[in-house]
Design brief:
118 residues, alpha+beta, hypothetical protein PF0899 fold, three-stranded mixed beta sheet, three-stranded antiparallel beta sheet, 31% strand
């Protein structure tokens, strides 16, 4: 389960950012988890309270948005969901594609208690 390392790094990254920028209370952290990233959002959500315990993020909500794994077919230019179509272009049947989205796990937003958003 590599998610524990990802969640620990998320907590470290946000905590460092908060410290460097002298930000007060954090209400929410919003992360984007790509369908093709091999990160399981449910595991991230389960591990977050454990990793955040004792930090400035202990009472902050974590929201994980799933980003669809989209690709463009190299043969016919069709844009399709890789997971839904098992990597095969639904228009022409080709397996050749360029992935456009859904490979990353990123911190999208940090919501602070005084209304500032970063």
């Amino acid at each position: 389960m590599h998610e524990i390392g990802i969640v620990r790094q998320l907590v470290r990254t946000v905590t460092d950012f908060v410290s460097e920028n002298r930000i007060g209370e954090i209400r929410e952290v919003v992360a984007d988890c790509g369908e093709l990233s091999l990160v399981i959002p449910e595991y991230v959500e389960e591990l977050y309270p454990i990793a955040a315990k004792g930090s400035i993020l202990e009472n902050a909500k974590l929201t994980v948005n799933v980003v669809p794994g989209l690709a463009e077919c190299d043969d016919c230019d069709e844009i399709f969901n890789v997971v839904e179509h098992k990597g095969i272009c639904p228009a022409c049947g080709s397996f050749e594609k360029t992935v456009l989205s859904g490979k990353d796990f990123t911190i999208r937003e940090i919501v602070v208690s005084d209304g500032q958003e970063d």
